[in-house]
Amino acid sequence: MTDSVNKVVLAYSGWLDTSIILRWLQDTYHCEVVTFTADLGQGEDIEPAREKARMMGATEIYIEDLREEFVRDFVFPMFRANTLYEGTYLLGTSIARPLIAKRQIEIAQETGADAVSHGATGKGNDQVRFELGYYALKPDIKIIAPWREWDLTSRTALLDFAEKHQIPIAKDKRGDAPFSVDANLLHASSEGKVLEDPWAEAGDYIWSRTIAPEDAPDAPTYIEVGFEKGDAVLIDGARLSPATLLTALNEYGRANGIGRLDLVENRFVGMKNRGLYETPGGTILHVAHRAVESVTLDREMGHLKDELMPRYAKLIYNGFWFAPERLMLQAAIDYSQQDVSGTVRLKLYKGNTTVVGRKAEKSLYSADWVTFEESAVADYDHKDAEGFIKLNALRLRLKKILQG
Predict the structure, then answer these.
(1) Are 93 and 189 in contact (CB under 8 A)?
(2) Catalytic option among 73, 155, 180, 290
(3) What's domain 181-359's architecture?
């Protein structure tokens, strides 16, 4: 016997699985269903989801363009930390989930819904990310995760359910899908089916956001990215909104074959997963941000950030965006970015992003201090290095003297 639910807000893509969930919720819980479809820059027309939701009896339909909020309030704060999960993954899927969860809870409050629902499976990370977000924002919310409740355990059962209830099935969904795709303005990811063998090279048809590096232009592309307080705000001197800037960087990355990653990662739920990720603009942004930090950030602040980053990345990957420890780390990261303003010149060439110049008004780099030539700086005395070295060597010398 299911718990009583009057109204549920469903994260709705308009595709087959969430359309099946919509009808299943109506049949199982005998409740009203409010659909929420977010435009996060996935690169497809989401308006058809409105007509499909209306046709299937959704009580209310929300379709919202969240691209600017996504980049400004989620992607950019994450990039201030130079965030990489397990050293390589730029967290394109992970960072989108808290925004969707946040908006679902807001819609639940606006519509008087007493439950929320998602289409994440019981084997993946997304169920955790969505639900940790729900609970952090509304502790008493009822969560319905159909993949953990229903008996539709095979693709045949799903298709049979769709046909029985006259849910339209796209022609390419009748066969066995070769792999699944998740996309937003930051990235596209592909996993499953033909990609489940980590030894097998992925076919060219899998990549959707970038051309192959070997097919990129033979002449390099040069761009300049300007930063203010750790966030990119300019490309070649033109000021752009967060989403517009990332869109432009995506195009530069796409045209130069930048941002492909073939990764086997450790899921939070305990298993390893092979995924193919494309993050063209994000890869450029990551390289550029580290470059502007290299001339503006104090050494120990930078090193401490690098030590904190893996923990910060793990929190985002595991779904703890709204957790107090993530907010605490974010405050420290944002404090470090006060003087991270400047310009980076980049060379984009056949899959590579190379820093070829960097400058900043508050740069900590000084040619007068570092030069091999006669220095104009009177305060630096080469003889001071002798005492510095001896003091740092003292414990090493004592160990050898006293212990042999």
Answers:
(1) yes
(2) 180
(3) Alpha-Beta Complex (3.90)
